[in-house]
Amino acid sequence: MEHKIKIGKDFLPEHTFDCGQCFRWNKEADGSFTGIAFSRAVNIGCDGEWALIKGAEEQDLKLWSDYLDAERDYGAIKEKVSVNDVMKEASRFGYGIRILRQEFFESLMSFIISQRSSIPKIKGCIEKICKAYGEEIYLGDKVYYSFPTAERLKDVKESDFEKFGVGYRAKYLQKAVHGILDGTINEEEIKSQPTNLARESLKKIYGVGDKVADCILLFGMARFDSFPVDVWISRAMAEYFDGKDGYELFGENSGFAQQYLFYWKRSIG
DNA sequence: CGCCAGGGACGAA
DNA sequence: TTCGTCCATGGC
């Protein structure tokens, strides 16, 4: 069963799912992407101004619409972030990017794993963890695995996490799981805080620094005023913006600007 | 073999 | 507060 969601012309699955913001979506031969979120597996493609969702339940269409940030006018966003020729080019290059509204815990764990690693490696580590501790999800004739809840990871030891290739990040993951379970990390409380305070709260988590905190804010909390600075963005800002601060340049649209810049800069090296 | 990959903790100054 | 150093792992 296929459903359609009106999303407008500013959507291309390849840009959205391959721009580095998510790790659980994979391209199919027809250009659509199959992936997992909210313990559901679906296939997402696009036809003109419509997003095509295969394998979704009727009552989940609002969920997927929100996930794809389908209501937002990305054309207007692109105009606002195009403050110079570099940003015009970057937003033109990644014209079909949408910032996915991902889950908090998955973002926390995924971006802890991401530090000083590569995207294919990160995807591999996450997939192994999901296969070991997630729940089976069936779509078509294939089986997928949900991202495990903290509860399901309750008894996973640091040495267990190491088996998935996460290296020195194993202890961060183990502590994050228990922080969630004992309430030291309070998702609802952090989500209720303004961005700057939420960032400080996130940075109290062992293994979470500036960059990972900003990724959780942007991808796991829909805080579009955050501007994660990784090696690529750091180079780009030094090269094209005289080392200026991203938020000072883009304000409430910082997250969109960051993702266009990241995707474009990575493509040209 | 060395270098780097969507960094961060830690200690020193 | 800022600056080196070290940290596991895998691809190249």
Structure summary:
The protein is an alpha+beta fold. It is 48% helix and 13% strand. It has helices at residues 13-17, 61-67, 74-81, 85-93, 104-114, 119-133, 158-162, 170-182, 187-192, 195-203, 210-220, 231-240, 246-250, 254-268; strands at 2-6, 25-27, 33-37, 40-47, 50-54, 136-139, 142-145.
What does this structure look like?
The protein is α+β, with helices and mostly antiparallel strands and about 270 residues long. Helix content is about 50%, strand content about 15%. It is built from 14 helices and 7 strands. The chain has helices at about 15, 60-65, 75-80, 85-95, 105-115, 120-135, 160, 170-180, 185-190, 195-205, 210-220, 230-240, 245-250, 255-269, and strands spanning about 1-5, 25, 35, 40-45, 50-55, 135-140, 140-145. The strands form 2 sheets. The chain has a 5-stranded antiparallel beta sheet with strand order 1-5-4-3-2. A hairpin with a 5-residue loop joins β2 (about 25) and β3 (about 35). About 45% of the residues are buried. The model has no long low-confidence stretch (mean pLDDT about 100). The structure holds a DNA duplex (13 and 12 nucleotides).
User: Regions with pLDDT < 50 over 5+ consecutive residues?
Assistant: none
- Write down the Rg: 18 Å
Strand order of the largest sheet: 1-5-4-3-2
Largest beta-sheet details: 5 strands, antiparallel
Shape: globular
Order of helices and strands: EHEEEEHHHHHEEHHHHHHHH
* Content of β-strand: 5-15%
* Number of distinct beta strands: 7
Which structural class do the helices and strands define? alpha+beta
Mean pLDDT: 98
Number of helices: 14
